[in-house]
Design a protein that fits this description.
- The complex is a heterodimer.
- Chain A is mostly beta strands.
- Chain A contains no helices and twelve strands.
- In chain A, strands 2, 5, 6, 10, 11 and 12 form a six-stranded mixed sheet that branches. Chain A has a four-stranded antiparallel sheet with strand order 3-9-8-7, with no helix packed on it. Chain A has a two-stranded antiparallel ribbon with strand order 1-4.
- Chain A starts with a strand and ends with a strand.
- Chain B is mostly beta strands.
- Chain B is 0% helix and 48% strand.
- Chain B contains no helices and eleven strands.
- In chain B, strands 2, 4, 5, 6, 9, 10 and 11 form a seven-stranded mixed sheet that branches. A four-stranded antiparallel sheet of chain B has the order 1-3-8-7, with no helix packed on it.
- Classes of the chains: A mainly beta, B mainly beta.
- At the A-B interface, strand 5, strand 6, strand 10 and strand 11 of A face strand 4, strand 5, strand 9 and strand 10 of B.
């Protein structure tokens, strides 16, 4: 069974600085998807970025980018030029290409952004 | 505007009562999902449906039931058999590509918080 681990329960960053959130996963599959979702205080889950395992190039979305290390089963999220609105819970998630449709989530990292 | 709506935002359940959480989407998505979130945890899948009139159990289906009579709607009923229903419930939807292959991103609604009186 696949698992997703986020080892940082909380992180903090100064406004305009860069922060990296860690995520590791375990799977025996060769092809899959990885996601980062943001959950602000409103509690709605918002997609931040998505990576397909067969793509070697790291995904980027504006200030958000990932460092995808397939062999190490690592999928970290880098937030550049942090803004106050980035403060939220961030969840890493795995989705199998072959099995059920479910997303497998980590336990989340709470990011605080200080002015 | 296209999106996923969930109602109510807050729901209170009395002992022995069944309650139903609504989820509607106008994104023309084929697949819909229900997740449960407990404090300090990620989301866990309760049920999912890939097409109308068909649905499958997720990891924690006991004490829950669903129906999928319309493409746009996927209501979740929390039955009296669910002994610990207090949680945040999130509905999601995605395009379904059919069978093994490229699968699409899941998008989430705003959630319903269920509390037990």
């Amino acid at each position: 069974a696949q698992t997703v681990t986020q080892s940082q329960p909380e992180m903090s960053v100064q406004e305009a600085e860069t922060v990296t959130l860690s995520c590791t996963y375990d799977t025996s599959e060769s092809d899959y998807y990885l996601f980062w979702y943001k959950q602000p205080p409103s509690r709605q889950m918002i997609l931040v970025i998505r990576q397909e395992a067969y793509k070697q190039q790291n995904a980027t979305e504006n200030r958000f980018s990932v460092n995808f290390q397939k062999a190490a089963k690592s999928f970290s999220l880098k937030i550049s030029d942090s803004q106050l609105g980035d403060a939220a819970m961030y969840f890493c998630a795995y989705r199998s290409l072959y099995n059920t449709d479910k997303l497998i989530f980590g336990t989340g990292t709470r990011l605080q952004v200080f002015p | 505007d296209g999106g996923i709506t969930q109602s109510p935002k807050y729901l209170f359940r009395k002992e022995g009562q069944n309650v139903t959480l609504s989820c509607e989407q106008n994104l023309n998505h084929d697949a819909m999902y229900w997740y449960r979130q407990d404090p300090g945890q990620g989301l866990r899948l309760i049920y999912y449906s890939q097409i109308v009139n068909d649905f499958q159990k997720g990891d924690i289906a006991e004490g829950y039931s669903v129906s999928r009579e319309k493409k746009e709607s996927f209501p979740l009923t929390v039955t009296s058999a669910q002994k610990n229903p207090t949680a945040f419930y999130l509905c999601a939807s995605s395009i379904y590509s059919g069978g093994p292959g490229r699968k699409e991103t899941q998008y989430f609604g705003p959630g319903t918080r269920l509390l037990v009186l």
